[in-house]
Amino acid sequence: MLKNKLNKKRILFFSVQTFNLEKEIQKKLEELGAEVHYFDERPSNNNFVKGIIRIKRSFYQHRIDIYYRQILAETKNQNYDYLFVNRGEVVPEFFLVAFRKDHPKCEFIFYTWDSFTNHDHPTTIIKYFDKKFTFDPDDAVKFGLSFRPLFFLDSYKKIQNTSVRKFKYDLLFLGTAHSDRYQISNLIVNWCNQNRLSSYCYYFIHGRLVYFYKKIFDKSFQLFDYKKLSFESLTTVQILGLYKESKVILDINHPGQKGLTMRTFEAIGSGKKMITTNTEIKKYLFYNPNNVYIIDRNNVVLDKNFFVTPYQDVSEELFYKASIEGWLNCIFVEKESNYWIKGID
Questions:
Q1: What is the dihedral of CA 17, 19, 21, 22, to 10 degrees?
Q2: 86 forms bridges with which residues in the sheet?
Q3: Tally of domains within the chain
Q4: Which of 93, 118, 264, 344 is deepest in the core (most CB within 10 A)?
Q5: How far apart are the first and last CA of the chain?
Q6: Shared-domain flag, residues 122 and 164
Q7: Does 55 have pLDDT greater than 60?
Q8: Helix locations, 103-235, DSSP H
Q9: Do residues 136 and 168 share a domain?
């Protein structure tokens, strides 16, 4: 059904650049027969611009407006079946109004993998979309959006049942540097060292401007070790390599975020066990205490036995729905009413 829906359809796709996920989404849409015209949501993806937008978007609004007027001019005389906006961090309202006028038959689809408490700009534009989804169950209820968790890429399936018997790392953490992630991961790394378990942590930050701003205004950020931060994001190939060499994935969600991170679904796709601070995971259909170990971020307690027992596979249906194709099927074909969490549409 998904291939039939997307075959020979033209999609204008907006997304911020995030660990090359936008390229993977475009690639999958094209594999399914769509013609995709992609634009970065931001006028520029350098660290300075990302920092300005995150700290004070209004300082850069004029440049954003120019960028979107240029896109309007470029797309005015083209036909599109879908406008697909992923995240909606800076897409201006005037663009959506004008684009609708130019393309009245185009279906507008919105998805976000961020909570509105972190970025509230999308709340000003979601009214213009025909279909709208969020990964956050609370935002889904509060703003009347359809609920749809994230996904894993096809490449993660290739490292399932890997022949590697002795892993390089017992524990792996990959993530953007924010909130209490450093404190929690540091505690866990120390515990691993005490229990003769190996670990690897990679902390990414969107530029030095963001770092110094947070260093001044965010008390929790003052504990981050500058030498352990990276200003370059890992490629998909690098992430896959680290997953292949790791036994357990560590997931530390933002304290104000209830939606499950991408790491959760990458763990499902690659058949990896996971330690997480997100207690919301208990509500999900795939929750299995054998595969998922939940910790209290304020009182971290671990069990070495969790690293010993093997991973237990999820059902074929759930595995498909957790894949990128299952995600796109939900967004473009049929939403999954009450599939993931009971009571959430």
A1: 20
A2: 15, 111
A3: 2
A4: 264
A5: 21
A6: no
A7: no
A8: 137-143, 181-194, 208-217
A9: no
